[in-house]
């Protein structure tokens, strides 16, 4: 009944947390309590590549790959300023190499993701936690949380249906631990600790979905590869996600107010959406619905607090971002990873606990808020919506968002491009800076500019900055990274940011800077693909200009680096 860590919720956040705790400290005693009996269906099947890196670290990637889920190489959208289909790809090129499955987590597979049947996927992860010797109780719910002030003192458990507590507990229903984690996806800890939420968006949507057998795939790429389909309607949008060779998740997202005003039943509105979208209707000609229509609100929010004296929130209990960007599993599992490393450091007792709590909360909250901001932009940039136009305009107005390309880019990068999941590269909402600009280019009538395309002289600007430490989560440790901080932005001396920091202390001319960066890329110290590393380093330079860490100017006697967008991304050349 007494554990080092007790986790409420056995979904991907809870199982990821348990697995990583046990991997990096085999002596730690972990209990996972799950209210339901697995397997069970759950919405949120489409992943981003960041999840696969976590699965590999957990030791679960091979098991997930062996389940033969479709390989996600990207998404096909009907969204934005035209009705044209837009293919968004994770891969550097559109072709997935022919490769027998199950495959290894290497090469191209590091750039892809999965489209998972959650009834199978969640079972795999929970069973993996068992194999790593987490204690797991299914069909056992946490009915109340006892606490003294901000310190939790116990979880009161209640068996559900055929669930039971260990006989060795002798009928006792209270479990105690040093650390308590809410990964239920609900408000268990928020309700107990009277924690509010922030919902910085006017989006108030409802999701309606069912599963279908034997639907056609929109396309088959390589062996088992495909793209999810995201199709906007005049009053919402639909997802089409193959999650096995024969099973597909098909959902509708529409404003709650539209559902109310329509006066239609859920099934009627769902069928109307299918019939009004010819691409999806065609894919369902030979398919049959499982007829288990489900619905949920998908209101984006972030908790006011993510942790307390000895308790933490992770997964959907901490926050949720609109599903348009398929970020649910990424946010849940990356947040659980940070939490695992935080608890491991707290147990070691070598670091300031206040700093560990602050870094866990600030990095997690920043990641969720970035995804919420991106979702708002995607809705705001969709000129196809009719009844949603007023709502989209309000989103933009509430955010102070000018949909002109450069203004949108600045807004999406609020807080800096160096604060996302991987310090050392330029990202926002898990996407590279180049991908962000590519998205804006797709949605805007005017392309976003690149500071490095109009300037060729770059100098560091550290005026008003203070030296602080920010967190880097790696190999079971929370590593303090020296960083310059100014306002909401920081300049971490890590990865490619550190490379640029050193280079800019010696060189200011872009040609000289690019020569050094290419030599670094070719050395293999920053990654195995020199072209990708060089492109990432140029994106970091662009981010440093955007965030004010570098001042840029133009020397008319020197060449510039021209960057042009194309269908799959962008290309660069000196001129």
Q: Concise description?
A:
With 575 residues, this protein is α+β, with helices and mostly antiparallel strands.
Task: Describe what this molecule looks like in 3D.
The protein is of the alpha+beta class. Among the domains are: 2-67 and 114-198 and 300-363, FAD/NAD(P)-binding domain (3-Layer(bba) Sandwich); 452-574. The chain has 17 helices and 28 strands. The protein is globular and about 80 Å long. The chain starts with a strand and ends with a strand. The model has no long low-confidence stretch (mean pLDDT 92).
Measured on Cα atoms, how large is the radius of gyration? 24 Å
How many beta-strand runs? 28
**Largest sheet at a glance?**
9 strands, mixed
The fold-level CATH name of the domain at 2-67 and 114-198 and 300-363 is FAD/NAD(P)-binding domain
Q: Could you list the spans in which at least 5 consecutive residues all have pLDDT below 50?
A: none
CATH superfamily of the domain at 2-67 and 114-198 and 300-363: FAD/NAD(P)-binding domain
Mean pLDDT over the residues: 92
State the CATH architecture of the domain at 2-67 and 114-198 and 300-363: 3-Layer(bba) Sandwich
């Amino acid at each position: 009944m007494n554990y080092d860590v007790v986790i409420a919720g056995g979904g991907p956040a809870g199982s990821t947390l348990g697995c990583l705790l046990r991997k990096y400290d085999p002596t730690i005693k972990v209990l996972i309590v799950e209210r339901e009996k697995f397997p069970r269906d759950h919405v949120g099947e489409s992943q981003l590549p960041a999840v696969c890196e976590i699965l590999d670290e957990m030791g679960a990637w091979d098991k997930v790959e062996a389940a033969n889920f479709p390989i996600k190489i990207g998404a096909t959208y009907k969204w934005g300023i035209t009705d044209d289909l837009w293919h968004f790809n994770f891969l550097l090129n559109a072709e997935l190499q022919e490769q027998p499955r199950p495959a290894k987590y290497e090469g191209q597979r590091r750039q892809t993701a999965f489209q998972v049947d959650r009834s199978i996927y969640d079972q795999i992860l929970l069973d993996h936690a068992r194999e790593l010797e987490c204690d797991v109780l299914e069909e056992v719910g946490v009915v109340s949380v006892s606490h003294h002030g901000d310190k939790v003192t116990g979880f009161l458990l209640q068996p559900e249906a055929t669930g039971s507590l260990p006989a060795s507990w002798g009928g006792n229903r209270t479990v105690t631990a040093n650390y308590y984690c809410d990964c239920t996806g609900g408000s268990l800890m928020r309700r107990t600790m009277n924690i509010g939420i922030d919902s910085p968006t006017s989006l108030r949507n409802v999701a309606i979905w069912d599963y279908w057998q034997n639907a056609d795939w929109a396309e088959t790429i390589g062996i088992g590869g495909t793209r999810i389909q995201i199709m906007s309607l005049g009053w919402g949008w639909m997802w089409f996600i193959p999650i096995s060779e024969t099973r597909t998740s098909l959902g509708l997202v529409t404003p709650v107010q539209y559902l109310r005003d329509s006066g239609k039943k859920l099934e009627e509105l769902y069928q109307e959406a299918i019939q009004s979208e010819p691409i999806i209707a065609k894919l369902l000609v030979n398919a049959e619905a499982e007829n288990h229509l489900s619905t949920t609100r998908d209101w984006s929010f972030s908790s006011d607090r993510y942790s307390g004296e000895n308790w933490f929130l992770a997964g959907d209990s901490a926050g949720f971002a609109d599903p348009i960007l398929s970020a649910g599993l990424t946010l849940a599992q990356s947040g659980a990873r940070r939490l695992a490393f935080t608890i491991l450091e707290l147990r070691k007792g070598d670091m300031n606990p206040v700093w560990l709590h602050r870094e866990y909360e600030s990095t997690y909250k920043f990641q969720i808020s970035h995804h919420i901001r991106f979702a708002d932009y995607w809705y705001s940039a969709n000129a196809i919506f009719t009844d949603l136009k007023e709502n989209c305009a309000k989103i933009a107005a509430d955010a102070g968002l000018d949909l002109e390309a450069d203004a949108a880019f600045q807004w999406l990068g609020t807080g800096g491009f160096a604060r996302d999941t991987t310090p050392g590269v330029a990202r926002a909402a898990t996407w590279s800076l180049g991908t962000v600009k590519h998205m804006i280019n797709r949605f805007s009538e005017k392309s976003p500019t690149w500071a490095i395309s109009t300037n060729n002289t770059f100098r560091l600007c550290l005026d008003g900055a203070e030296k602080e430490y920010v967190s880097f989560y790696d190999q079971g440790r929370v590593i303090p990274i020296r960083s310059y901080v100014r306002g909401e932005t920081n300049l971490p001396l890590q990865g490619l940011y550190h490379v640029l920091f050193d280079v800019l202390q010696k060189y200011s001319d872009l040609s000289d800077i690019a020569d050094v960066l290419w030599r670094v890329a070719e050395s293999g110290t920053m990654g195995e693909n020199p072209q990708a590393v060089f492109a990432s380093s140029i994106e970091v330079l662009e981010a440093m200009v955007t965030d004010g860490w570098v001042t840029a100017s133009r020397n008319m006697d020197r060449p510039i680096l021209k960057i042009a967008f194309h269908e799959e991304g962008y290309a660069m050349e000196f001129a």
